[in-house]
Amino acid sequence: MQTSNNEGKKVLLRVSNLKQYFPLKKKGLYVKANDGITLDIYEGETFGLVGESGCGKSTLGRTLLQLYRQTDGRTMYYGRTLDDLAPAYVKKTLQTLEKRREKWHELKKHLANVQKEYGILTGIVNGFATAFGFTIAIVILAGLREKMEYNEVPESFKGMPMVLLTAGLMAIAFCGFSGLI
To answer: From CA 172, how far away is CA 137, in angstroms rounded?
Structure first.
């Protein structure tokens, strides 16, 4: 890492004469979003960038994050250029490329299977079947409540315990219907 002569701190980011131009549709014309920016950011320092709307603050940030490829200039991260850092990243990416490609194909096949399995018709049928099942459950619970008023039921089973018991039995019964649709 490089150090500054006047502060003795390490330079984390050094930008020299950074230029970021965007071509227009007319040949040879460019929008100069950033032109000739030079700055150093030191270890332990907070850097604030202030300016008018449209002056290139966001473009500078995107360029420093390598979201845009800078038109000209030199950017050093921890005393190294991107060209110094890139070969290790490229080598690692190339080594795992086949594995990543296989994983992508697996995910693509899985997505295709899911899309085949659940179409719009399946969704509509499942929606109506669910609504019908809830209707049956409500009717059964209403009928059970009516019968409980006329029959002798132990006090401990009245109210919520009976509802939970009935709901559990109905859930078991509906599990048998799951393979019919």
So the answer is: 12
pTM of the complete model: 0.45
* Structure confidence by residue, pLDDT tens digits, 19-75: 999 999 888 888 999 999 999 999 888 888 899 998 899 999 898 888 888 899 988
Q: Are 45 and 9 in contact (CB under 8 A)?
A: yes
Contact 123, 137 (CB under 8 A): no
Candidates 178, 129, 151, 156; CA nearest to 164 is 156
Nearest CA among 43, 131, 33 for reference residue 79: 43
Choose between 30 and 92: higher pLDDT.
30
Token pair, residue 124, equals 């509509």
User: Rounded CA gap, 141 and 155, in Å?
Assistant: 18
41's CB contacts (< 8 A; 6+ apart) are 11, 12, 13, 14, 47
Average pLDDT, the chain: 82
Q: Which residues pair with 32 in a beta bridge?
A: 21
